[in-house]
Amino acid sequence: MAEPTVRTRQLGGELRRARExxxxxxxxxxxxxxxxxxKLSRIEKGSLGVKPADLNALMDEIGIQDIGKRDxxxxxxxxGRQRGWWQTxxxxxxxxxxxxxxxxxxxxxMRTYQSTLIPGLLQTAPYARATIEAIRMDSQHxxxxxxxxxxxxxxxxxxxxxxxxxxxxxxxxALRPRIRSSPQVMREQLQALLDRQRLPHVSIQVLxxxxxxxxxxxxxxxxxxxxxxxxxxxxxVENLTSxxxxxxxxxxxxYGSAFERLRAAALPFDETADLIERxxxxxx
Length: 284
Hints:
Blueprint: H1 6-21, H2 26-33, H3 37-45, H4 52-61, H5 67-81, H6 95-106, E1 109-114, H7 125-135, H8 141-154, E2 165-171, H9 183-197, E3 202-207, E4 221-225, E5 234-238, E6 243-246, H10 249-265, H11 269-282
Parallel strand pairs: 1-2, 2-3
Antiparallel strand pairs: 1-4, 4-5, 5-6
Helix pairs in contact: 1-3, 1-5, 2-3, 4-5, 7-8, 9-11
């Protein structure tokens, strides 16, 4: 059975809630549609995609008549069926990572706080290589090559016709690591941040080392926003070996509030640029 994606889980959850609100039992709905009960169950669990005709029939059966709601559910279903460029790298990336790339591809906005690394969408290839080699301790050279390629390809969301709106708060500690074998790598990375900051859809702020205790001390996270509806926003929390997608609207809202606190505590844009410039010039 295919592993559910965030989007197929969202679609299944919306359909299940609508069915329950209509007071309908799953086996009865499946029977009315002429489906095996397992088909409806898998759709609601997110482990089975749904074709447009089946989605229309299901929405009719459980009473989803609002045109706007129907359009939103069709949009989610299309995204869940999408096969993007990242499928080429399925042997090199985990399902959770593929899910992130798919979400970035469909998102309208991303708000991210990073405590130890430059965000992936803002990394240069040499910096990406150095950090991937450090974090993925047992990876072979060709695996690192593939992951660097993926990270660079992900950045196309910032140059598409309707680019992703990216707001990154980066802790100053993430700007200070030295790559001893090649100081130029970090200089180029800091310059890349300055260059990206000039884009109208990219906002970068630095949270300084001397900031008072803050909510970001609990770790890095990102909140992805989608054009269909705010209740479909997703938060992402990553660690060394896994990624957790937070989909509950109340919890996602808490991450959004946490980001707003970090944004308010971070340096303004001009002071951020000045600090990045000083750090870049200090590298020898």
